[in-house]
User: What shape does this take?
Amino acid sequence: MEAVMPAGGALATQHVSAVINGEPTDVVCTRYSNTVFVLLTQIQKIGVLLHVLPDAKEQDEDQTYTVKFLLGFSEDLMIDVCAREIGKRIMSESQQAVPVLLGLSLKTYDAPTIRAAIDLVMAARVW
Assistant: This one.
């Protein structure tokens, strides 16, 4: 798994695949100067498109995050949980808290699937 860099060197992309709960799962992460794009899919489609942003915080407060649906919608709260945790993990490991643009389409959103999917995203680190 090596990052792919264009001629200018400004863009890094990483692709990883695994089988999660019997389903082929793909992750593509691309680092832009002002955001990280993550595609996490088990159906080879973007699914819902979400924007995860860090909230403003006081010095002694824990960081919180806002998740906005840009395309698509679901009342499944586990999609929000999954997006928030992916954003939190990426922003806590990156040099600066850049927003995360997340294309998400898993077949199920149970806790074991989400944990395995987040681990797969973290294996595609470009931040």
